Amino acid sequence: MSESQSSSTHSAEKPNERIHSVSEKEVQQHGYKVIQSKDADATLAFQRQYDSEVPEITAEQEKKLSRKVTWYIMALVCWVNLVLYMDKATLSYATMFELFTDTGLTQNRYSNINTLFYVGFAVGQIPGNYLLLKLPIGWYLVGLTSSWTVIIFLTCLAKNYGGLIALRFFLGFVEASILPLMNVTMGQFLTSAEKAATAPIFYSTCLGVTIPTGFIAYGVLYADTTHIHGWKIFYIIIGGLTFITTLLVLFLYPNNPAEAKFLTVEERIWTIRRVQRTTGASIEQKTFKKHQMVEALKDKITWLFGLFFLLQQLANNLPYQQNLLFTGMGGLSNLNSTLVSVASGGFAVVLSLFFSAWLYLFPSFPSLWLQAISLLPSFVGSIVAVSLPWDNKKGLLAALCLASPAFGVNWILMFSLNQTTAAGYTKKITRNAFVMFWYCVANIISPQLWRSKDAPRYYPAWIVQIVLSFFVAPILGLVIYYILKKRNDERLAAVSEDNRVGVVQDDSETEFVVNVASLDLTDLENKAFIYPL
Question: How distant, in Å, are the alpha carbons of 60, 79, 154, 285, 403 from that of 128?
Answer without folding.
Answer: 40, 21, 22, 16, 32
